[in-house]
Design brief:
With about 140 residues, this protein is mostly helical. The chain has 6 helices and no strands. It has helices at about 10-35, 35-45, 55-70, 75-90, 100-120, 125-135. Helix 4 (about 75-90) packs antiparallel against helix 5.
């Protein structure tokens, strides 16, 4: 995908959008680091291998930081979209529980936001744009 030229307000909106969409993942990833054993137990109870905690942390913290900076934005946005859908299906598919149903649709909505970011790219206020302008 080629870079799209945006106006200053659109570039500002893309920066704000990147900050807002990754905040949840950064907080969640740091929470996982603080409570690795408890999170592994929850993952195992949901049928997930506890060893997946480390790739989850890497994506949630490292990937979120990269998206915040606007670095590898499109591939990471696609990865976060898939991750959000998988998380919805694995951890929030109990539609008899209203809170789980809400969390399911929250994850699906977050995936939609990442799909928009995948299509748009990070905008002018990003490490990708800075590196492209250096050439």
């Amino acid at each position: 995908m080629k870079n799209t030229i945006f106006t200053t307000p659109e570039n500002t909106a893309l920066l704000i959008g990147r900050v807002l969409i990754i905040a949840l993942f950064m907080i969640s990833g740091l929470g996982k680091i603080a409570n690795v054993e408890a999170t592994q137990g929850y993952m195992a109870a949901m049928g997930m291998p506890a060893s997946l905690i480390w790739p989850a942390i890497a994506l949630e913290v490292g990937g979120a930081l990269a998206v915040l900076l606007g670095f590898f934005t499109r591939p990471l946005a696609l990865l976060f979209a898939v991750y959000s859908v998988i998380s919805a299906l694995v951890f929030h598919a109990n539609f008899d529980d209203q809170m789980q149903a809400i969390n399911f649709w929250k994850n699906i909505s977050i995936a939609a936001g990442f799909i928009f970011l995948w299509v748009s790219g990070p905008g002018r206020y990003s490490l990708e744009a800075w590196l492209a302008n250096r050439k």
